[in-house]
Write a structure and sequence with these properties.
Elements: H1 2-6, H2 11-21, H3 31-43, E1 47-50, E2 56-60, E3 72-77, E4 99-102, E5 105-108, H4 115-129, E6 138-143, H5 151-155, E7 165-168, E8 176-181, E9 183-192, E10 195-197, E11 202-210, H6 228-243, E12 246-253, E13 263-270, H7 274-291, E14 300-305, E15 312-314, H8 316-328, E16 332-336, E17 344-356, E18 359-368, H9 371-386, E19 391-398, H10 408-421, E20 426-430, H11 436-442, E21 447-450, E22 455-456, E23 464-466, H12 467-482
Parallel strand pairs: 3-6, 3-7, 7-21, 8-20
Antiparallel strand pairs: 1-2, 2-6, 4-5, 5-23, 9-18, 9-19, 10-15, 11-13, 11-14, 12-13, 12-17, 16-17, 17-18, 22-23
Cofactor: Zn(2+); Co(2+)
EC number: 3.4.13.18
Keywords: Cobalt, Dipeptidase, Hydrolase, Metal-binding, Metalloprotease, Protease, Zinc
Length: 488
């Protein structure tokens, strides 16, 4: 199937993407892709550096006639979000992504595609390898661990780069030019609980929530998508209130930056409520499906009797606190920007809920383009979880990227885009966490811009990249390189 992708135009881009997608590259486990990039740079005979945190920098001199242009940094991240459908047999640690062409889209078989940010990485690789593309001096910066902490960008020291302009190739709408982004912080709540013997005459059930779209917890947070953890909690709340349901286990969501698509719970009900429980739950399920019929048409909620009734359950006091805290905890858009139309300013994603073996873990990712608002929402979540006895930690905080509407490179991109497409681009800030804000802390004078081809469904197995858009984007990149401003 990769050969089908390799035959797409522009071949230089898609071939490098196929090469990259053959290398396993989960966040926090980038050793193989780091070695792959270093080998790539060395084979081209270009200066190749691995910094102390694992970022790879490859430097290529200007092509003849372009030596008097400003040096540019072309930047993308090496890691990718690993998500798969429950029924997909795939090992991200050992297998390359299995791609196929579906009309105008390149997709993966039951997994994330890695177009985020693999198409950006492939773009830079194709330019580094080229012998006929005009460009100024390039410093190619391939960062690690963007998806789970941005530790690559945070660890990049000042003085390694000389470029005056940074082109970040990590956005997902080809008619947009990004000039700002949100910062983020992880909010993690944990506590222990006592397990109790399940009462006699109990009936075991499994509750399954699946079939949700999922998606990027920043870019898709305003689309009204279902969060499997919140939906599961709603079911548990109703059943506990009306029938005394007791929880044995919960396993919901996966990655902090992915809207949860699935949640599974093992519970018990007294057998005297057995029929009434099933009847009432079906009414609740119908209500939820009706509410989400437009945004989540494939939502499945199943209530099924267990083969074995759980022997242990949560102590009731802690269970009640957990269910009420998750109900109270904010999920989704918290505040819209007052300065940029249609921009989400602050949001939260309740990404992970695990209850098992006497331990509770709740993981959230809070985003905001305003630092004070980010911590306001984080403290609201902290309060909800501390009220039922959790220890709450903040970690992985990173800054947003403040928009510069007077950016010189922005004017270059706007002019080229309008000339190529006979329309003006949308100049925006995004609610995702781009690395520009972090990189700017050590390179404050660098003029930064972000753009990319159209990618849909990032961070979910529905991730797909538009072929037509990649062609449009490639043409855009080539003309940008030819029109980098002269050195001062």
């Amino acid at each position: 199937m990769s050969q089908e992708v390799r035959n797409l135009e522009p071949k230089a881009l898609w071939n490098k993407f196929a090469d990259l997608n053959a290398v396993p590259r989960p966040s926090k486990k980038e050793e193989r892709v780091i070695a792959f990039m270093k080998d790539f740079g060395a084979k081209l005979g270009l200066e190749t550096i691995e910094d102390e945190v694992g970022n790879v920098i490859i430097k290529k001199p200007a092509t003849p006639g372009m030596e008097n242009r400003k040096t540019i940094v072309m930047q993308s991240h090496l890691d990718m979000v690993h998500q798969k459908n429950a029924d997909t047999d795939f090992d991200f640690d050992t297998q390359g992504i299995e791609m196929y062409v579906d009309g105008d889209w390149v997709r993966a078989k039951g997994t994330t595609l890695g177009a985020d940010n693999g198409l950006g990485v492939a773009t830079i690789m194709a330019i580094l390898e080229s012998t006929d593309i005009k460009h100024p001096a390039i410093e190619a910066l391939f960062t690690i661990d963007e998806e789970t902490g941005m530790t690559g960008a945070m660890g990049l020291k000042g003085g390694l780069l000389d470029g005056e302009i940074l082109l970040n190739l990590d956005t997902e709408e080809d008619d947009e030019i990004d000039i700002g982004c949100a910062g983020g912080i992880d909010v993690t709540a944990e506590r222990d609980y006592n397990e109790e013997e399940a009462p006699e005459n109990s009936v075991g059930y499994t509750i399954t929530v699946k079939g949700l779209n999922g998606g990027h917890s920043g870019m898709d947070i305003d689309k009204g998508l279902g969060n499997a953890n919140k939906i599961m909690n709603r079911l548990l709340f109703d059943s506990f209130e009306n029938f005394g349901l007791q929880v044995a286990e919960i396993n919901g969501g996966s990655l902090r930056n992915a809207i949860p698509r699935e949640s599974f719970a093992k519970v018990i009900i007294s057998e005297i409520f057995d029929e009434a429980f099933v009847f009432d739950m079906q009414e609740v399920i119908n209500d939820i499906k009706t509410e989400y019929k437009t945004t989540e048409p494939n939502l499945e909620i199943k209530i099924e009797k267990s083969g074995d009734t759980p022997a242990k359950v949560m102590e009731l006091g802690v269970q009640e606190g957990l269910i009420r805290a998750i109900y109270a905890a904010h999920n989704g858009v918290y505040r819209m920007s007052a300065d940029m139309a249609d921009l989400v300013e602050t949001s939260n994603n309740i990404a992970r809920v695990i209850v098992k073996d006497g331990k509770i873990h709740i993981g959230c990712l809070t985003r905001s383009s305003v630092e004070s608002s980010k911590f306001d929402l984080a403290n609201a979540l902290r309060s909800a979880f501390e009220l039922f006895g959790c220890e709450v930690n903040f970690s992985g905080s990173y800054p947003g990227w403040t928009p510069n509407v007077n950016s010189p490179i922005l004017e270059v991109l706007k002019e080229i885009y309008e000339k190529q497409n006979n329309e003006k681009p949308n100049v925006v800030a995004c609610h995702a966490g781009l690395e520009c804000g972090i990189l700017g802390t050590n390179y404050p004078d660098m003029d930064m811009i972000s753009f990319g081809p159209t990618i849909k469904g990032a961070h979910s197995p529905d991730e797909r990249a538009s072929i037509k858009s990649a062609q449009k984007y490639w043409k855009f990149v080539l003309e940008i390189l030819e029109n980098i401003p002269m050195k001062n």
